[in-house]
From TrEMBL:
Domain ChsH2 rubredoxin-like zinc ribbon, first and last residues per copy: 218-253
Record region (Disordered): 183-214
GO-annotated molecular function: DNA binding
Keyword terms, alphabetized: DNA-binding
Residue intervals of the FAS1-like dehydratase domain: 25-157
Pfam family, one: FAS1_DH_region
Protein name per UniProt: DNA-binding protein
Length: 334
């Protein structure tokens, strides 16, 4: 595909470095503790001073995966800390959009950490426009993959540092595109399915990846059982299944049959892209089982506007494409 002439000026931005965005607050234990509570992390080096002091860290540290969170603007859009740059690091996206590519979807996010952050570290990051791909055509539409690299640094002055110290990086890639034309079909009663008309089989639901670690879960589902992995050493329940207990590191495990009752801990409604054969909009929930562990599953029998955090749900096992059985959850009356 020939390059658009207007892309020359946009590609000239590749490699441009945008100024600093400062964190509102230094790294601190209360924020780290709240983040851990939300994420379900119980490592004492993030919140318990005595146990952290006895660890290899010699004191409290912050979860590495919080790196991006420290410099976020908060609930107000672009509300950055004083001293932050006024430059707009995503100007390339705006320029591409002006030429008829209005949509954007995040593609991947990759974090790298050089060291643990400690309470008192004062952070900032800079942004570099790292790359813009050739024009690509995907199922979503036609557009450009645009890659940004954020470099996070701790300011000098904390501890014995006399210079700013690079502590991690975030690679963030998005697809800026013109949506593919979607042909609207007539209702099924008056018009057969397009794939059937063409003699093609109807789309099938993608099968889950089955391994030695999770095979018991899918075999249980076929029998109408919701099985959760349990550590034989300490009794900790874990899902998704894995080979090692995250609490005591034992390799020994068995399973417990859950009641299937739980509550909606969190949820998201997928509107686009519309991927056959799923219904749309498609509500997906993080369900907290009454046994204490959580799992992700599709909600059925409910409109997205009716879903509420804390809503009681019950598992049901539904069969698709003949041999695929999936646990899904349906709201129940209080």
């Amino acid at each position: 595909m020939a390059e658009h002439a207007w892309m020359n000026d946009i590609r000239a931005l590749v490699g441009k470095q945008y100024g600093r965005v400062y964190a509102w607050d230094p790294v601190n234990t209360p924020m780290a503790r709240q983040w851990c509570e939300i994420m379900g992390i119980e490592n004492p080096v993030y919140a318990d001073p005595e146990r952290a002091a006895a660890s290899v860290h010699g004191g409290l540290v912050a979860p590495p995966a919080m790196l991006q969170a420290w410099c976020e603007p908060g609930p107000l859009l672009n509300h950055y800390a004083p001293g932050s740059t006024d430059e707009y690091p995503y100007e390339a996206l705006k320029l591409i959009e002006a030429h008829g590519y209005p949509s954007v979807v995040a593609v991947n996010s990759e974090l790298e950490f050089d060291r643990y952050l400690r309470p008192g570290d004062k952070l900032y990051y800079t942004t570099r426009l790292d790359a813009i791909s050739e024009e690509k055509t995907t199922a979503l539409g036609t557009g450009f993959f645009v890659t940004f690299l954020m470099t996070y640094c701790a300011q000098h002055g904390a501890g014995r540092r006399t210079e700013d110290e690079e502590v991690g990086r975030l690679l963030f890639r998005v697809f800026k595109f013109r949506p593919a034309a979607v042909q609207q079909s007539a209702p099924a009663a008056s018009q057969p399915d397009a794939s059937a008309k063409a003699g093609k089989p109807a789309p099938r639901r993608p099968a889950p990846g089955v391994s030695d670690d999770n095979r018991f879960f899918w075999e249980g589902a076929r029998e109408g059982k919701l099985l959760i992995q349990r550590c034989k050493g300490c009794g900790t329940l874990r899902h998704p299944p894995g080979p090692v207990c995250p609490a005591c590191h034992s390799f020994e495990w068995d399973t417990v049959q859950a009641s299937g009752r739980g509550t909606v801990y969190s949820f998201v409604t997928m509107h686009y892209p519309e991927v056959p054969p799923f219904d749309h909009p498609n509500p997906i929930a993080l369900v907290e089982l009454e046994e204490g562990t959580r799992l992700v599953a599709q909600l059925v029998g409910v409109q997205p506007a009716e879903i509420e955090i804390g809503q009681a749900v019950q598992v049901e096992f539904n069969r698709f494409d003949g041999d695929l059985v999936l646990p899904q959850f349906r709201p129940v009356q209080a």
